[in-house]
Predict the structure of TetR family transcriptional regulator.
Amino acid sequence: MNPAVPTKRTPTGRAEPGDTRTRLVMATATLLQRQGYEGTSIKQILKEAAATYGSLYHHFPQGKEELAAEALRFGAAEFTELLRQGLSSSDDPAEGVANCAHLMADSLRDSDWTDGCPVAATALEIIGRSPLIQRTSDEALREWRGLIADTLHRGGHSEVHAAALACTVLSALEGAELLSRVSSDDAPLRLAAEHLAVLTRAGL
Amino acid sequence: MNPAVPTKRTPTGRAEPGDTRTRLVMATATLLQRQGYEGTSIKQILKEAAATYGSLYHHFPQGKEELAAEALRFGAAEFTELLRQGLSSSDDPAEGVANCAHLMADSLRDSDWTDGCPVAATALEIIGRSPLIQRTSDEALREWRGLIADTLHRGGHSEVHAAALACTVLSALEGAELLSRVSSDDAPLRLAAEHLAVLTRAGL
DNA sequence: CCTCCGCTAGATCGATCGATCTAGCGGAGC
DNA sequence: GCTCCGCTAGATCGATCGATCTAGCGGAGG
């Protein structure tokens, strides 16, 4: 792993450090989020990351699939931060959940409806065809459920109830993002924010 | 359009009539649902539908994209039927909504987690890259929202409130399907059923 | 029976896919 | 200054992509 180096801007809009491996992972994360696994070619990744085949297969001997799994973990960590930020924005877990939806809506709108959940597009098309990527996606979704459940639990919900509610909260967030992106309209996410707050309060 | 002809079973599990155009559309609908647009090759479609290039480009001069749009409409109509069945299963709209989730869970479980929403996988990966397919997906989602909204409205919700709630209901269904498919577990959809019923009753 | 035409059959095209390979750069350690 | 090796550069591979093309089947109309 190389030391920190200056960063530059790329067409993906993501800041990318000089470290080649990191550039590859970040560029792949963005592209997977936007166009899924099959829709993203290695050549496009290399161009976006300003890297070459040699670098890619040096850092990821298993090729595209291995790189994609690493990129999903990277994107998932970013999304975890967004959730953490939303959930911690209020002492009221209902408001925290709603703010997650609003943060997602803001992020999507500001990025022309591209920057949402980093695993959804890839996960849906790969189910049953790449155990590695499916498992990686599953782990990300479970981490997010756990994060939401912890917040609900601390907010007064029973542990079992918090876990169940967290699952539906994440479902609604993921689904609302799909609707928002397809229609280029943040209304589904804003409505999800409102309704999830109601649901969270109703459960107490 | 040809007259009705005998059907046969294919590896997709879908009954397919002798009409070549219909076989193409049905096979494509199934494949898009399972592996998305980029993950589905024309060759695979032709094999699955027992058709050839000549037939495909005769019926769909614009090629893969035109066929995919038609297939999405076909799959969407099937899913509309599932929703209609769930929504009409009870006089209580809360139960109707919950039954939609249960029907989806049953369908997914029975098909090894493949037969869910016919547009989600394709829509997510194609956003911003195929106006035709994105618009077709959007129309399907809007139709489903309208169907749910009508039921809620008839169940006593105000028109505005019914539309808003219907949006979140569909979001939760779509998201819960994602979670269920990725984890090969129907729990997210069963939980969504329960929570959506609570939310629907809370809104009255 | 012959013609016509909607439809199907499948070879073939150039482009691009993911992957592999050899060659060579360039900083660290001696 | 020299060697060594982690890393990068990019040509090239066979396979497969979506698309186009000509050829020909076979039922309907005369």
Summary: DSSP finds nine helices and two strands in chain B.
